[in-house]
Amino acid sequence: MPNRLAQETSPYLLQHQDNPVDWFPWGPEALAKAREEDKPILVSIGYSACHWCHVMEHESFEDPAIAERMNELFVNVKVDREERPDLDAIYMSAVQAMTGHGGWPLNAFLTPEGVPFYAGTYFPPQDRQGMPGFPKILDAVAAAYRDRRGEVDENAEQMRAYLDQATRATPQPGELSPTLAERALRGMHRSFDGENGGFGGAPKFPQPANLEFLLRHWKRTGDDRAAAMVHLTLDAMANGGIYDQVGGGFHRYAVDAIWLVPHFEKMLYDNAQLARVYLDAARAFDEPEYRRVATETLEYVAREMTGPEGGFYATQDADSEGEEGKFYVWTPAELAAVLGEEDAAVVGAYYGATPRGNFEGATILNVPRPAEEVAAELGVSPEALLATTAAARPKLYEAREERVHPGRDDKVITSWNGLMLRAFAEGSRVLERPDFREIAERNAAFLLETLRRDGRLLRTYKDGQAKLDGYLEDYAFLIDGLISLYQATFERRWIDEALALTETMVAEFADENGAGFYDTGAHHEALVARPRDLQDGATPAGTSVAADVLLRLGAMTGNEEYTRRGERVLAMLAEPMAEQPVGFGRVLSALEFALGTPKEVALAGERGDPAFEVLADAVWTRYEPNVVLGYADQVDPSLAERLPFLAERPPRDGQATAYVCERYACLPPVTDPEGLLAQLASGTGVSWQEL
Q1: Which of 4, 14, 310, 628 could share a disulfide with 442, CB 3.0–4.6 Å?
Q2: pTM for this one?
Q3: Ranges under pLDDT 70 in the chain
């Protein structure tokens, strides 16, 4: 008989609805039961694409004897970390403090008040390789709670104090200067894998926020070290098994240092951030291959990760038919069955397919050698080789579609959708894809209409139900996407919505007694601590993106309070971002905006008129991360009251016109794209040090 999780919408929670464990979702009912029965709470946190979460479910939560023990001794709570990042952050901090490491599944034992007193990650069903079995853990924790209550309460109070201090403490503010960015660059260079790209060794994560910082730093300073790190990493990932060579899009990370063998889950947030980095690098370096990867990644999301209402789905699993990666790998015989022997030999040579394989007897398609080398070996031209592989990909994709697909978590998460909204908005202009604009606009409308209630955002949506309070990252990431959507479309609605959400974000999340923001809002339920994440991870910290959007909106609106708030965050994180730059990529990008000179570009004319659109496209053809772009609407000049850089910007002689200014210094208006590009390239000559 299904347990209480059958009433939930989270695919991860629904995966556990038939467990013999008497699971509760997090909420007042579970906490009240723990208080009434004086039982400790076991909170188990994971997510639907988590391989080891599935393993522990099968080994322990589906085991009737273990489940009986859990039900007798504890109030058991299942949490989807993607729905509740606040709980995940609090209890992950606890497990890291107690054990020195973290990960998922996360299993924490709490007092009835929700205070952790013991925690760990994966536990095997029996003692194994030095790890105690889960039943032994259950018995020991329950015995301690029953027989050594004073000791448990003391540990819990110490952990409460630790969590409170950890979430309230903020670094001492430092001075903002180019020296910070230089120190950060040197630190990233030390962590960089100069042979394979990326940072550190195995397992290796893409870390797109760091690549974004390197691109922006190269743009501002011309430092070739930053450009070289971006080039090597983007090339290696695009050629590696971490990139889906058949269907597009990136897997979560590589288990090795060479980007070959991925953990096969696909996350919306990775693909959103990586699509943008490839878009930026395509413009920065005039690199067609980067355009191809960005295009294929966005097409993958449009095709497989977009719901009928316009929301983007969260994840795709690593496993199908109980095997990790089975959906994605190929044997030479399978290639030949789809392509024929002759083309399969060419495609297999290019993608490294061999009878032995590179993953459990099959091949993860990748590009281990340059096309010129493979072509010479096969006795064909590089052009013929690439034409054959390009023609093969749709055939392989169609054949792969007949396989059993990995599971998909089809809930919509506001913050992750904000990341992908920005990618589609910018992709619509950079790639000249009107269909991407339609996807972006539909997504923005869906989020604003469905995931907002009484002026405040909600976190998640599935099966017609939007729920849970929005977090700082939901506001910041959506604002970020709406700013880009306005600059791609010049539809006033999007910037108005961005500004309205910014006011709510500041009111709900700002720390008025210090600097920066909390992750939970003023109206959020009271927890054992109020989390505040300052470090960027797989997704940027909400604080990082909040600082970034405040600085950009400050430049657009002239609102000095926005700018001051953004700069206070940067000052607070000055020393951490310089000393530990790999963990602060997005806030370092915001620093680059603050150090650079924002270029204000106001376009006047008739939207949709070819002469106007040519000017708009010219702005998007260049990599100009410090440009703020707007439409000087002659019919509705009231927007200029909100965005003063649009004021008094008429078309010249009835022609579409561009005005380029930098901090109150303006260049002559131009009506041709060549003139606009020249002005963007030269600037006004005003540097931040002179202001």
Answers
A1: 310
A2: 0.95
A3: 683-691
